[in-house]
């Protein structure tokens, strides 16, 4: 019998660190081709290449930035394609394939495990298989509950027929949990501003989706015993809650009297929007107010929250909350002159600290450089461009409204930012300069003057 044909991946790209960006890029190309189909565009005109390419990249990277209006430019079929790309991108193309393999065959190859490990940031390779099972169940559970709540509210107060309410409920639930900013409404959530039965469930789904799958898996079995949580879970949970409180209070303090946002609204409306203002910049992307109308201080605060992002191995972007807090512990240890970096009753190894510093510096370099490039290409103000570039890198999707007006070359810069922000600065850099062998020697050590 003839041997079955097998697709052989060249060794130069077979390493998980390189294979991960390639799989995401392949999905973006597939999404672009689908969105270029005539049935994906509403009306009689065919979709343009740049709108399709930009939208596909934004959907796969679960960002939500758009150069065209999702509600009017794309047909229901096109909106369904975007929904599917967001769902696959949120889980991770490799994670989704692994989960499907678990349900079908129950086996994982070593290479598949390694690729999945690189995508989900799992420390122990033996944790990959059970983690993916919990990921699938967790995503389905939270999205279903959110969709039911939203559908009930939409049907009761906003839409006359159940199919429309259900479509909006499912769409918004998937976007919320996956931290993507696409909406079926021209003005996102502005039409629901102050409605706590819509804004709070969406914000809660965004918050849970930004925690990270490993943390959710640990909470699933040990939520009653915080003292036994790992350092990663402690940093993610308490850091996320802390940023939520600080972000919400800062947003309310800055926008309470702003007539363009909260100035003329009631107390309940302000509190609901304050919760949204503390959660959405972490990676949500949906908004019930115009970010282009907020005070400059609020815009800067949103930029900082977007840059920090959510939890590792989550649908959120940014440098991640664990990276941000570990850098704080590194600084604290240096100021105190401690020989070790300690978090609680645990010490943090130098390799982890070095990785955190590398991620932060690469992110700063990338955002600053691209902000400068976009400013050269356009006439927009610095704070607007910085907000837009940070939103793209952190895969948030919030915008001051300048994205549709960017020239094609500036849109390409935003596309690169979204892609790098999704696959990670370390994975993107490692894919290009991956060292295949560890050096077998050490060079003489020298201490240059620092500071």
* Helix-strand sequence: HHHHHHHHHHHHHHEEHHHH
What sort of overall outline do the alpha carbons produce when their principal axes are compared? globular
Number of helices: 18
Q: Ends: how far apart?
A: 70 Å
Task: Provide an overview of this structure.
The chain is mostly helical. Helix content is 61%, strand content 1%. The chain has 18 helices and 2 strands. It has helices at residues 16-35, 49-60, 70-73, 76-91, 93-104, 110-120, 128-157, 162-177, 196-209, 213-222, 231-255, 267-279, 296-308, 321-336, 350-377, 382-393, 408-423, 425-433, and strands at 341-343, 346-348. It has a two-stranded antiparallel sheet. Helix 9 (196-209) runs parallel beside helix 12 (267-279), helix 11 (231-255) crosses helix 12 and helix 15 (350-377) runs antiparallel to helix 17. It starts with 15 loop residues before the first helix and ends in an 18-residue tail after the last helix. The model is unreliable at 97-105 (pLDDT under 50).
In short:
The chain is an all-alpha fold.
Topology:
Layout (H helix, E strand, L loop, with lengths): L15 H20 L13 H12 L9 H4 L2 H16 L1 H12 L5 H11 L7 H30 L4 H16 L18 H14 L3 H10 L8 H25 L11 H13 L16 H13 L12 H16 L4 E3 L2 E3 L1 H28 L4 H12 L14 H16 L1 H9 L18
Antiparallel strand pairs: 1-2
List keywords for this structure.
single chain; two-stranded antiparallel ribbon; mainly alpha
């Amino acid at each position: 019998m003839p041997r079955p044909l097998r697709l052989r991946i060249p060794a130069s790209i077979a390493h998980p660190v390189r294979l991960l960006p390639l799989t995401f890029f392949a999905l973006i190309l597939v999404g672009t081709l689908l969105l270029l189909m005539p049935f994906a565009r509403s009306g009689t005109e065919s979709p343009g290449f740049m709108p399709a390419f930009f939208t596909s990249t934004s959907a796969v990277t679960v960002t939500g930035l758009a150069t065209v209006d999702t509600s009017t430019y794309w047909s229901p079929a096109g909106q369904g394609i975007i929904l599917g790309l967001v769902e696959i991108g949120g889980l991770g193309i490799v994670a989704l394939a692994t989960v499907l393999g678990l349900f079908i065959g129950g086996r994982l190859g070593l290479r598949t495990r390694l690729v999945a490990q690189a995508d989900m940031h799992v420390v122990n390779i033996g944790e990959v298989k059970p983690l993916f099972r919990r990921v699938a169940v967790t995503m389905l559970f939270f999205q279903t509950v959110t969709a039911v709540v939203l559908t009930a509210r939409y049907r009761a107060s906003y839409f006359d027929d159940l199919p429309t309410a259900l479509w909006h409920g499912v769409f918004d639930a998937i976007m919320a949990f996956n931290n993507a900013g696409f909406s079926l409404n021209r003005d996102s959530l502005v039409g629901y501003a102050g409605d706590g039965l819509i804004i709070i469930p969406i914000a809660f789904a965004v918050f849970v989706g930004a925690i990270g799958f490993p943390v959710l898996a640990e909470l699933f079995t040990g939520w009653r015993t915080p003292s036994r949580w790992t350092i990663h879970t402690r940093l993610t949970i308490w850091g996320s809650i802390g940023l939520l409180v600080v972000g919400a209070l800062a947003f309310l303090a800055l926008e309470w009297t702003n007539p363009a946002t909260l100035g003329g609204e009631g107390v309940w409306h302000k509190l609901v929007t304050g919760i949204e203002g503390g959660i959405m910049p972490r990676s949500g992307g949906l908004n019930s107010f115009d970010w282009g109308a907020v005070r400059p201080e609020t815009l800067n605060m949103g930029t900082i929250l977007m840059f920090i992002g959510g939890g590792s191995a989550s649908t959120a972007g940014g440098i991640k909350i664990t990276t941000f807090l570990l850098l704080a512990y590194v600084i604290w240890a240096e100021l105190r002159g401690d020989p070790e970096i300690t978090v609680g009753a645990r010490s943090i190894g130098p390799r982890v600290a070095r990785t955190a510093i590398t991620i932060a510096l690469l992110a700063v370099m990338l955002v600053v450089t691209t902000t400068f490039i976009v400013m050269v290409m356009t006439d927009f103000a610095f704070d607007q461009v910085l907000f837009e570039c940070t939103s793209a890198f952190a895969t948030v999707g919030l915008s001051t409204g300048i994205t549709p007006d960017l020239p094609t070359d500036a849109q390409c810069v935003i596309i690169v930012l979204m892609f790098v922000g999704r696959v990670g600065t370390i994975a993107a850099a490692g894919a290009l300069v991956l060292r295949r062998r560890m050096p077998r020697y050490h060079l003489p050590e020298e201490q240059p003057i620092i500071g």
